[in-house]
Amino acid sequence: MSSSSSPTPVAKFRELSLGRRMPPTTRAQAHRQSLSDITTSDYYNDEDDGGGYIDDDGGSSSSEPESDSDSSLVDDDDHSIIRSPSKLVYKLDTLSHDARLRVREAFKDPPRLSLQYCRLRDDVYAFQMTELVPRSIRIGSPDSPFATPRCSCREQQQTAGPPCKHLLWLLDQLVKQTLYDYDPASPLTMTADGYPEEIGDPFSDISAFHLDVLADGLRCDVVTPGSEEDSENTDSDEAEEDENQRQHPNPHRVDEAREMLSAVMSSSSPEDYRPDLCSNPPSTGKKPVKRRDLEGTIFRMLLANNDFFHYFLSQMRSTDPVNDPFRKLSQRVDRVLRELDSYATTSTTIPSSEGGSAEGPRDVAWAARHISGVIGLVRTSIFKRDRPLEPQERTSAARTLVHILAAVVERNRDFVSPTSTTRPAAIARRDKNLFLRLVGDRDEDFVLGVLSLLPPDAAAPFLHSLEDILDQLGVNGAPATYVEKFRSLIARLRRSGGSGLAITSSPGAGSKRHGQSQSHDRGSKRMR
To answer: CA separation (Å) from 507 to 50, 97, 448?
Structure first.
């Protein structure tokens, strides 16, 4: 066909890409493609520069970075400081010239990668991703063959030089999820192995965080050795077949598919959208087409096809629920609390091959670290940013904080594993009671320190929920200074004219109250 001919009907599909072309549908197809002469230079040298997508109201979609500067040097005159694709800032001054150049190139033109799944086996974390061909990255314990993170790409296998772009991309994404104590004004110090020295070593960082919680943030599945038949070759067709045999969809993927579809198809909140789809999601082995139900078909496709999910995700607006950072942090806390509840009720132990020995118990200390870290991230997202929060963002931040506070106050009980060899009476109360550790033992401004700094209109919709929590504090017992701060916050919300009509688009944000007739004189006395 000549160049003057009209384009074929499928030509425009090239514009609908995450980068410059749609990624392969499966890892097996990618593997077969790699046998041809397609190179990564072909992947990046298309004439189309992958401009930003335009959404239906004329604005730029969240599928593209806000600007080129998001992943370029913070200061063009200072080549030792760079901003990564995840918007973390790194110092490169300790690296060699070649390593510094490698990092700058990787962050300025990041690879178009899609995480497929991750796993832990034999004290090695493995992350499977797809570019034009599958890439596997392994992060091992100090005693494993992968004490230094390694990628399966040819560049890494043939040389012992600086980390490749795949490794730099993954480690940056990993740090973005796991680093709780991060000040955006203070650049991280990049090491020669491709990760910041602030996290220690990547294996210990993931172990403390736990792989399944990390996978939710990275939007990939966790597979166990049994689901892959203990295959060492994770780049093979057999690995794909094993993956396709998994029957139960990832609950986090179900939630996010629901969030995306509700934003496109409905004006209702994700929690109210199509309960028939999410109460009993289809197994991943089912054919996705559901006759006379387009929404149901798309929902199944989002669960079954990783590339389609990430493409759909790239088209969502930054204001959609699936991209709401506060909502995502609230979901992380929900995940952590479910694990804590299970820890105290499950009598079976996690086999060491599935991470039990490497990752340790999901106990009160582990949960408290996550919850405190999330609150710190909320604070950072509110107060250390280039622009003020929009009203919708302020409300989402307040909703998350109130939800976390309510969930912790509800857990004024002991969490001890049935398999523990230590007598419950011998365990310190702070080590087995989440409420006592975070609220009841001493006043550390838990949640209130951040919530009180938001404008009153942000927390006003949750006034009744806060009153319920204050009631519960009177039963549980809390430091007198903490209760007084709580009362002051509620009084300020009342003066601002808060309606008290709680917005319940996040679990736990609602309230049993239907009015304000209850007495506001609540005791702050401890009750054991």
So the answer is: 38, 50, 19
357-361 contact pairs (CB < 8 A, 24+): 358/120, 358/123, 358/141, 358/207, 359/120, 359/207, 359/208, 359/210, 359/211, 360/207, 360/208, 361/417
Is there a single domain that holds both residue 363 and residue 431? yes
Q: Which of 135-139, 247-251, 483-487, 516-520 has the lowest mean pLDDT?
A: 516-520
Mean of the per-residue pLDDT values for the chain? 78
Tokens 């086996």: give the residue.
121
Host domain of residue 267: 251-314
Task: Quick: pLDDT tens for 148-200.
Answer: 898 988 777 666 678 898 999 999 999 999 999 888 889 999 999 999 999 99
Q: What is the pLDDT of residues 451-478, one digit of tens each?
A: 999 999 999 999 999 999 999 998 988 9
158's tokens: 């043939």
286/341 same-domain check? no
Could you tell me if residue 324 is inside a domain?
A: no
Show which of 314, 346, 368 is a domain's final residue.
314
83: β partners: 89
* Within a domain: 226: yes
Residue environment code for 227-239, b if the CB has 16+ CB neighbours within 10 A, otherwise e? bbeeeeebbbeeb
Residue 444's identity, in one-letter code, is: E
Instruction: Name, in order, each residue with C-beta under 8 angstroms of 67's C-beta and a sequence gap of 6 or more.
Output: none
One domain, residues 273 and 384: no
Q: Are residues 224 and 265 in the same domain?
A: no
What is the torsion angle, in degrees rounded to the nearest 10, for the CA atoms of residue 271, residue 332, residue 71 and residue 136? -110
Let me know if residue 352 belongs to a domain: yes
Task: Using alpha carbons, select from 143, 133, 137, 178 the residue that is nearest to residue 156.
Answer: 137
Give the alpha-carbon dihedral of 456, 459, 463, 466, to 10 degrees: -120
Please compute Rg for the chain using Cα positions: 25
Q: Which residues contact 387 (CB under 8 A, 6 or more apart)?
A: none
| Same domain (yes/no): 237, 262 | no
For 12-69, what is each residue's pLDDT tens digit? 334 443 333 344 444 444 433 333 332 333 333 333 333 333 344 433 333 333 333 3
What does 4-50 look like in DSSP terms, one character per residue? Answer: TSPPPTTGGGGGS-SSSSPPPSSHHHHHHHTTTT--HHHHH--SS--
The structural domain count of the chain equals 3
**Whether residue 451 is found in the same domain as residue 403:** yes
Q: How far apart are CA 392 and CA 228, in angstroms?
A: 43
Same domain (yes/no): 213, 359:
no
Please choose, from the candidates 119, 189, 191, the residue with its C-alpha nearest in 3D space to the C-alpha of residue 148: 191
What are the tens digits of pLDDT across the range 383-396?
888 888 999 999 99
> Which of 197, 224, 244 delimits the end of a domain?
244
- What residues pair up with 260 in beta bridges, in sequence order? none
Compute the distance between CA of residue 248 and CA of residue 171 in angstroms, rounded to an integer.
28
Q: What pLDDT is stored for residue 184 in this prediction? A: 84
